[in-house]
Amino acid sequence: MMTFDIVTIFPAMIEQPLAAGILGRAIERGTLDVKVRDLRDFTTDRHRVVDDVPYGGGPGMVLKPDPIFRALDAIGAERGTPLTVIMTSPQGRRFTQAEAERLSGLPHIVLLCGRYEGFDERVRERVTEELSIGDYVLTGGELAALVVLDAVARFVPGVVGDEQSVAQDSFSRGLLDHPHYTRPATIRSASLSGERDLAVPDVLMSGNHAEIRRWRKREALSRTLERRPDLLDDASLDDEETQILRELKGARHGRD
Length: 256
Ligand code: ADE
Known about the structure:
By secondary structure, the protein is an alpha/beta fold. Helices cover about 35% and strands about 20% of the residues. Strands 2-1-6-5-7 form a five-stranded parallel beta sheet, sandwiched between helices. A hairpin with a 2-residue loop joins strand 8 (about 185-190) and strand 9 (about 195-200). The radius of gyration is 23 Å and the shape is elongated. About 25% of the residues are buried. Adenine binds near residues 90, 114, 134, 138 and 141.
């Protein structure tokens, strides 16, 4: 069981996605405990103001520090002082699958969703990590917090039905996934280049499990080599994969 507290000014942006799918079921079963905290509940003025103009002038608004401090104090009083407080922002360290796995070992995570021009800098006093989900700017941290929560939760035992599938995720080993097929065995498709039958690779219907395993390894490796060669620097490959990769690189070399 893992506990999350998410502090946001748009609770619906978090609550509605969390009600559906695998995370929704995990929350229902109690495998995940997720509480969404409306930052406005921690204001003290009549208008529940969460932002203010920046000192020094300039465009945009800044999230006030005091409601955030009160929200963190309330979470601490309820659950014990949180050891991990994550702020989502484009200035953060890049969030990766390895980070998701590391965070899944923690008992309790608080996620602070940013808005406007950002947080008052003094909020960072209470933040233990700042994470970015990629090099682009979102309108707010809610989608980023959901991405972090989703990727971390997959590693929590009992959330995804088949734990093997999480551990064996090719991405967890630093590779892109191999292609997948299901019935029908052939399907007619019309595209700009004309009409034709699309078949499933024979090997997948051969019943030869050793060959299927090897085909999948080769496909995952050749995809990674084509699309994300940078991943291969840190990938953990077994002997067979190292051999296949050598062959693929040799074949590419011959082609160039
Ligand atoms: N908030 C706005 N943009 C973001 C990003 N790329 N990652 C995390 N939080 C954000």
